[in-house]
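May I ask for whichever protein you like with its backbone structure tokens?
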Amino acid sequence: MTIVVIVAIAVLLVALLSVLSVLKVRKKKLDENTENPTYWDEQNAWLVSEFSRCNVVVYGKKGSGKDLTFSHVINLRKERHYSNMPYNKLTTVMGLDSLSVGDNTYEDFIDGTLCKFKPVFDDGLDFYVSDAGVYLPSQYDKELSIRYPSMPLYYALSRQLHKQNIHCNVQAIGRLWKKLREQSDSHIWIRKTVDKGDYFVVHAISYDRYESAERRLLPVKDKQYGATYGDIVERRFRILKSSIDYDTYYFRTLLLDTPVSLYDRKQAKLNLKEILTHGYYNSFEPPRN
């Protein structure tokens, strides 16, 4: 083995140890923060503020806790809202075809041939799109653009039209229809959910730039890094099990010609631990280039 190879291996080992040290320090600091009695309230306040401020995309692997996070936000906000699935008694279930500016298209805006349409939403009520990758998959960009040409327009104008934000959750952020994801303002990567007995702890990272969210970059305390990649913050949310009330069998009810028993629904809620604690991304998975 030549001296050059030995030196190269040594440099790589030093770099690896340095990265592991940074991750260990970051985890220790976050653990210390969660022991602060106000930490959980501060994170809840951030969630309420962020979902009230802008369009949020929540993403993460199946079972990581995306719908759980949606449900938590909805319970925190305690407001009427719209969704393509029921989260609680304040949910009005509506189809995604309602996210439209009528028959108007980009050409009508340019040519000045806009037509007024009858509103279907009450002002000030947000729309939560669950499993957006199923409804609005990026691989069908052409078909979606032909069939629903005004949906991206509504997404862009929803705050002006109805003081409404539109939030989506999806397994992979790149799986969401391009015309929507490029207009999103805030992104939350749900890394995993851990069972703590009476409550769950959701591990997440928030981003204010789509490109950084897509790469799943980890936070680094460096001014140039922040200027280049935006605001990246590691977060944890505590969710009481007693607050969970959404129907985990909703899509089975929609698709299968078989009724779901009351026992199955109760069992689904009891087994939510199993749904949430398997198949998540490793906490220190490196970002994709």
Notes: DSSP finds 13 helices and eight strands in the chain. Residues 39-244 form a domain with the Rossmann fold fold (CATH 3.40.50). The chain has two domains: 1-35, 39-244. Residues 3-34 form the longest helix (32 residues).
